[in-house]
From TrEMBL:
EC main group: transferase
EC number(s) stated in the UniProt entry for this protein: 2.7.7.7
Reactions accelerated catalytically: DNA(n) + a 2'-deoxyribonucleoside 5'-triphosphate = DNA(n+1) + diphosphate
One cellular-component annotation, GO: nucleus
GO biological process: DNA repair; DNA replication; error-prone translesion synthesis
Homology family: Belongs to the DNA polymerase type-Y family.
Keywords, comma-separated and alphabetical: DNA damage, DNA repair, DNA replication, DNA-directed DNA polymerase, Magnesium, Metal-binding, Nucleotidyltransferase, Transferase
Protein name listed in UniProt: DNA polymerase kappa
DNA sequence: GCGGATCAC
DNA sequence: TATGGTGATCCGC
């Protein structure tokens, strides 16, 4: 590997005086992600744009973007029609909502959100330690599932097409996803988590929520100490590292687990003042369920930090649904769930749907399209 | 009620 | 050359 990934890339980049259209090209790949602090974002944007701009995929992205632009414009127009009187009314409504929410706040529990670091890639490195020092991605030429930290230095990351990753980092190695390996590793991790909260909840293969209130009490330990012990024990048992967030509820713990990634932890004290201060400065995009689109719409309304959610509560109340504003206000106060969900009904019991989809090259003949549908239906029937 | 959009992993 | 798959929920018509 070269000493300075971005310098090597810059030398290889081809853009002799071309019009710099890529500068206006927003891509998910330049979002902040652990291990990507030193990445030359402009360069990544340029490479992604150059490799994408003539593709059908790009056209489709543009179409979708236009759609959300329209939606945003509609909302913006409505916001401008609001009278001061209407705004005041909505503000009072939101104040009621806030008061009700505050009454439900519970700061007596200690939650840990545990998030494995570059999980699939870390498991692959376990099976082949020589990969550790090399940039490597799990996935294929079509799509990267996750990249190790060596690869992230080049801007290579999850959800990026493999051929773009290879352009950003020519020596990038690919490992074929092997979910039986990851499932097995996850079981090793879970065996440890169970010791700290027998009712812990898996959010995915590599994420879990633990209520460690009882454990803290029984062992006379702080949440931070438990997280430290848990991480050591996970590493001892599996040779894998994870990051933890420690806070009074699941929402805050989840946000915190991302702060000191990889192999770190962050603690938010369960004090009203500390929580208020933490939320005030937090960019809304860090909040679970505020994704790229919602972030964009909120930005148009002048809302970028969680403090803005409170300040603009009247406006939000006028423009968004009850469900959405409930979430916004809860987030603004740092209020999240403090209980486990339904007793984990194993397997398929809670399932509400089942589907199958494939990406394939364009086909235009009705006969071929029909055959494709039949193929998918057969697959779905077999799965069912 | 439905299809499409959004979000998460 | 080439841009994933599954499931849940919400929005807008």
């Amino acid at each position: 590997a070269r000493a300075d990934p971005t310098a090597a890339q810059a030398a290889a980049a081809s853009a002799p005086g071309s019009s710099k259209q890529w500068q206006n090209y927003e891509t998910v790949f330049t979002n902040a992600k652990a291990g990507m602090a030193g990445v030359n974002k402009e360069l990544v944007k340029q490479v992604v744009y150059e490799m994408s701009k003539d593709s059908p995929h790009f056209k489709n992205e543009q179409r979708k973007q236009q759609q959300t632009d329209q939606r945003t414009q509609k909302m913006l127009a409505r916001s401008k029609q609001l009278s001061a009187h209407e705004l005041e009314g909505h503000t009072r409504q939101m104040d009621k909502k806030l008061a009700a929410l505050k009454a439900t706040q519970d700061l007596t529990r200690t939650w840990i959100h545990c998030d494995m670091d570059a999980f699939y890639a870390a498991v692959e490195e376990l099976h082949d330690p020589s990969l550790k020092s090399k940039p490597m991605a799990v996935g294929g030429i079509g799509m990267i599932c996750t990249a190790n930290y060596e690869a992230r230095k080049y801007g290579v990351r999850a959800a990026m097409p493999g051929f773009i990753g290879r352009r950003l980092c020519p020596q990038l190695l690919f490992a074929k996803p092997d979910f039986s390996k990851y499932t097995k590793a996850a079981e090793g991790v879970r065996a440890v988590l169970r010791l700290y909260d027998p009712e812990f909840e898996c959010a995915s293969l590599d994420e879990a929520y633990l209520d460690v209130t009882d454990y803290c009490q029984a062992h006379n330990m702080t949440g931070a100490e438990v997280a430290q012990a848990l991480r050591s024990q996970v590493h001892a048992a599996t040779q894998l590292t994870c990051s933890c967030g420690v806070a009074a509820n699941r929402l805050l713990a989840k946000i915190c687990s991302d702060i000191n990634k990889p192999n770190g932890q962050a603690v938010l004290p369960s004090e009203p003042g500390a929580i208020r201060k933490f939320m005030e400065e937090l960019p809304v995009r860090k909040v679970p369920m505020i994704g790229r689109v919602t972030e964009g719409m909120l930005r148009q309304l002048g809302v970028t930090k969680c403090a803005d959610l409170l300040a603009s509560r009247g406006l939000l109340g006028a423009l968004y649904s009850d469900i959405a504003t409930d979430h916004f206000m809860a987030v603004a106060l740092g209020i999240g769930r403090t209980t486990h969900g339904e007793p984990a009904r194993e397997g398929e019991a809670g399932r509400k749907g089942k589907s199958v989809e494939r990406t394939f090259a364009a086909i235009s003949s009705p006969a071929e399209q029909d055959a494709k549908c039949a193929e998918l239906a057969e697959k779905l029937a077999a799965d069912l």
